[in-house]
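Can't paste images in this forum, so I'm doing it all in text. The chain is below; anyone willing to post the predicted structure tokens underneath?
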Amino acid sequence: MRPDPIGVTAETLTPFAYHSLMVQSGTATLPELISDRAVAFGLAAALGMTAARVGLPAKNYRQHIGAMPWRTSVFLTDTPRLMPPVTRRLNLDAEAGLQKKTQDVAKKGNLKDFFYTQEVPPYQKFTGIILGLEGFDPFEYVGADELVIRIGLHRNGMVKLKKQKQAPPSVRLNASTAALFDQELPVDRYCLHSLQLSPFMPPSEAAGELMQWK
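Text version of the structure:
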């Protein structure tokens, strides 16, 4: 029997940024959404389902997402906003022991030492669904209707997930994540290679699609 999708609101408690859009001297975040992968991995870390390690494991989204007892939609907002650009510094001369030839090119390209990011502000609300596999409910797992997860660059952002009595009337899935599990979805909007939005669909239809991501 297919589990019911869990309606969830995601409210930003602190600003967060991703390297999403190229802008002059920096990057800007896609303000109208939180990706399904950001929610999935943030939830896994919050529930203690990730291993502590010195180095990051080899990237294998199919294996890592496949090990999680849930799948999620993309989370969307109707009122996207961005904060003014913030200056960041990548300190290559004092950290990481990088060689001089690396330091010499630090002022250009991807190694630019001063750059800008634009973050999503606090108190932004997004909606989406979480589908617990085999009856798993992350909120019941912790015995609360709210969970705080970390997302964004270096996990600097904090987002409160709150369980709702009903799922939103329609949701979008990430066709790029579906492709990891050899499932094909139509693409209504191509945002990034790793973020391709399906057309809107009812939560029940989305749940049927998410069940195939195994």
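Helices lie at 36-46, 61-66, 100-104, 138-142, 175-180, 203-210. The first strand starts at residue 6 and ends at 12.
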